[in-house]
Amino acid sequence: MIKRSFLFISVIMGLSITGCIKDTYNMKMLSKQAHLSPTLAISAVKGNISLSDILKSNDTVVYGQDKFVTLVFKEDSVVDLKLSDFSKGTLIHRTAVINPNKFDLNINDILSHITGDFLISNPLIKFNYTNSFTDSIKIDLNVAGRGKDKTIDLTLAPFPLEKPNIPVQQEITASYAIDKTNSNLPLLISLPPEVINFSGTATMTSLVKSSLPGNNALGPNRLHGSLEIDIPLELKINNLQFTDTVDNFIKDKGNGTDNPAKPEDFQLLRINISAKNGFPLGVSMKMSLYNSSTKASINTVNANDILKPAPVDSNGKATGQTETSTSIEFTKEFFSSVNNADKIIFSFTLNSTGNGSQDVKIYSDYRINFNASLVVKPDINLK
Amino acid sequence: MIVKMKYILIIILTFILADVSAQNSQVMYFMNMPQNHLLNPALRPSNSVYIGLPVVSGINLNINNNFVNFSDVFIKGQPKDSIISILNPNYNVDKFLAKIKDKNSIEPEVKIQLLGVGFSVGKDGYVFLDINERIDGNVVLPGDLFKLALKGNEGFAGSKINLSSLRGDLKYYREVGLGFSRNFTDKLRIGIKGKLLFGIADASIDNKSLAITVNDDYSHTFDANLAVNLSGPVNVYMDSKHNIDSVVFDNNRFKSSSGITNFFSGKKNMGLGLDIGATYDLTERLVISASITDLGYIRWNKDITNLQANNQFKFSGLNMLDFFNGTKTIDELGKDYLDSLKNAFEVSKSAKAFTTYLPFGISVGGSYNVTKQFSLGLLSYSRIIEKQIREALTLSANINLGNALSTSLSYTAENHQYDNFGAGLAFRAGIAQFYLVTDRIPIMWNRIKDDKTNIIIPANWNTFNLRLGMNLVFGNKPKEKNDKPMVQVE
Hints:
The structure holds two protein chains of two kinds.
Chain A: H1 2-18, E1 21-26, E2 35-36, E3 40-50, H2 51-54, E4 61-63, E5 69-82, E6 88-89, E7 93-104, H3 108-111, E8 114-120, E9 124-131, E10 136-146, E11 151-153, E12 159-160, E13 172-178, H4 185-189, E14 195-205, E15 222-232, E16 234-247, E17 266-277, E18 281-291, E19 296-307, E20 322-331, H5 332-337, E21 343-352, E22 360-361, E23 367-378, E24 380-381
Chain B: H1 2-16, E1 49-52, E2 59-65, H2 70-73, E3 74-76, E4 83-85, H3 93-99, E5 103-121, E6 125-142, H4 143-151, E7 159-162, E8 167-183, E9 188-214, E10 220-231, E11 234-238, E12 244-249, H5 257-265, E13 270-281, E14 286-300, E15 304-315, E16 318-319, H6 320-324, H7 330-344, E17 348-350, E18 354-357, E19 360-369, E20 374-385, E21 388-401, E22 405-414, E23 417-429, E24 432-441, E25 445-449, E26 454-458, E27 464-474
């Protein structure tokens, strides 16, 4: 019996032995590399937003009844003249000086990053005044806008003020409009100006040659005026670039930082943007890794036409939405060169419909519907 | 020691990574052994009495999976003879995923016979009693889960990550079975075994639906309706936001002997089981048989934790309108996002009794006795685990020299694997019967070596099945055909 058993076991063993060695695995040669690189995609941000959703109408941003957008800047007491101020000149032509002043729009920081063509088509300056002088007064206003690298004069001819109808009217409140028909205002506004300087004179002409000017001696007459700059957002933009340089925030800061993600841990980062743009403005973006020592761009990511401008009618009003799908891809090469750059330069380029060939108007109910998703392929080192 | 442990782990991995099958010691079915009543209660050995000693009488180990093998995890790379693992960047993950199925199973099973007794009753009756410790596991991992882990979710854009096939059940229970078989006619023999089941611990997933829809814009819709049921010495703690805070094993109950006894008694988690089978002699040489084994359930009442997730949630990115109109800051939006993501996986906890069902087997076989000692057998074995069916067809050649020596060589065809040669051996030395059975003998081998070790492991071991043990057998003298009973019972 035992013999039979051994016989059977021998058969079993024989089967095993006759089975051949298929492969030899020398575990000394086992690669220590252990990585996981799934491609993860997730919807990051979305929005269906109109201008009025993000910016409520106020003293500066005004939405008209038709929802057309106008920017309004006001400067009070630009002119405040009393009879005693008219001291220069002859008895018939007395002149008062409007003291130099300036209108600071506080946009010099933005302007320092902007290049390109930009034209506001129909700006308007209203000189609003209250006048109680009965003699004729003519204002010669010198206005100059100082942009980033040039200055433009308004080249406004002297203009007369209305006067009260004595005795039924003691003073008159009126307005004088300065626009593209009587000045260089569109060019001045489209500089765009950091500061608007203004000065000038007011000249009073008396009809009666006497030591005292007309009826003005009868009371404490005064001329008080203010400026209101209206910028209707009717414009043309051709390759207007906003460029900003920031410290390289992606760079691995080395020891001492608790950020577990390092640039080299990514094989790919892609931002997919899809949008339906109801604004007649298009946007492109460029991002460059920059080494300030060598003054060289190391790697550049281009994202053309993140938003394409909406079509417009002959009046410049958008008539629909333009759909775009854009991918901004940051490759492994990008991430491998991140640590060689100390700066990142962002550049945004704006174009209005037709690349600035026609006026477009901005309305508060234009909408942009966008969705941005992130696709990340991390290189997770499991070793 | 560390080197040895490493290779022990490799071997365990190999077994775990073997393809799943329905193998269940089919080789044993046509052998003359007391344990073959575990496959069909109508079967009985030729000896009149057997006693299975605690533990040594039978150990059965099955570890299977149906989706990956050792050689899928480690492959030859470049330069020549270098080896790369599945986590190496040079590994072709797509090739691996091509082998992954929709439902990928891992099914460990351990059965230790604590006590086995069988004895003849009357003319042809046979009574048997078994007490077995059993650990049964079956886990199904959806194919999409592997794709998600290895390739990410981008490839699912416009489709659904279907995890509804995710399933798992790991149960530890004691089976006390009392069976009886007898001839009902000259040709028909029927056996039946009733079982009391004492559940000791269980962890199972009741998955009604689990899916993540990935839209083209990468917004995600989560749909979960599943429960994890636990019966065992663990405490699950939840935080105030209904998220699982921690899971702690309860050591305290094992600090006293009464606590240990109480735990292992399984008296509060009772269940019932049934094996039923029959054999029919079509001719003197041709016998057909069939059985259903392991029909049963366990009702789990003790140490219950039910974790239920029933949520639908859509994430489509931060709504920037809230930010632009000044309602919320970016930080607040991010916090809202994380909160909503957590809420998507909000879990409720309860302690309701639950029921698990045993995977059951259906055997249909036939044997042809070429000679008195030599037979050929054909056996179909199907294992049904919830909605999944495993099928195996075994052809065997069997030599039974009484119960002195019983051997079997088998070939099994099952789920896409056709190189399963198995063997069984049982021999008796006096009253001691030893047996060793395996359903698959690997033909191709891989050699694993380094400086200190040189071992071989199966190259493509698509299942690991081993049953071995020792019985005490009595009444081994075969009856002569002309023997007449001393007392004729009418």
